[in-house]
Amino acid sequence: MRIPPLPDMINPWQMVAESGRLEGELPLAAMSRLAELNRAKGAVSVSLTAGVDERGVRFIKGALRTDVELVCQRCLGPLRLPLDVTVGLGLIQAGADARHLPGEYEPLLVPEDGVAVADLVEDELLLALPQIPRHEDRRECEANGYVAPGAAAARHIERRQPFAGLASLLRDSKRSN
Ligand SMILES: [Zn+2]
Fold this sequence. Notes:
Elements: E1 9-10, H1 12-17, E2 21-27, H2 32-35, E3 43-52, E4 58-71, E5 78-93, E6 106-110, E7 115-116, H3 117-128, H4 138-143, H5 149-176
Parallel strand pairs: 5-6
Antiparallel strand pairs: 1-7, 2-3, 3-4, 4-5
The structure holds zinc ion.
Zinc ion is lined by residues 72, 74-75, 77, 134-135, 140-141, 144.
């Protein structure tokens, strides 16, 4: 089945009024801020719905799925990361107060001229990225040539220890003389 392209822009208020859906794929390359961190090609699968909840909050909810490739900050090797992002946005009119939004929603400030789908998706993906991307298993970093500072320090102590022992032996022998 061919996936229809996503629109470039949406009017979130209209999407809410129509209980609309956004389904499709967006190339990762379309997101320039993310491209500075991510080396993976590929696409984000977008599945969002709009509506009004029982408290009258106009929302856009759904999920984004993709795989990104970041740089591990421990070993500087490639770090592939699946991203499975749950989206829960509460629509806020320009100038309105976002503090009344129930806690499970992030505010989405809607400008007059609508929202670029790529910006919306990119913001959500950037928020989902780890602050300091690192391989979860340190052995993956070691496979990329990383030596843990702890391990290096331990070897250092081992090397120094005989001399430290010798020094104290010398002191003891001087004292006994
Ligand atoms: Zn690493």
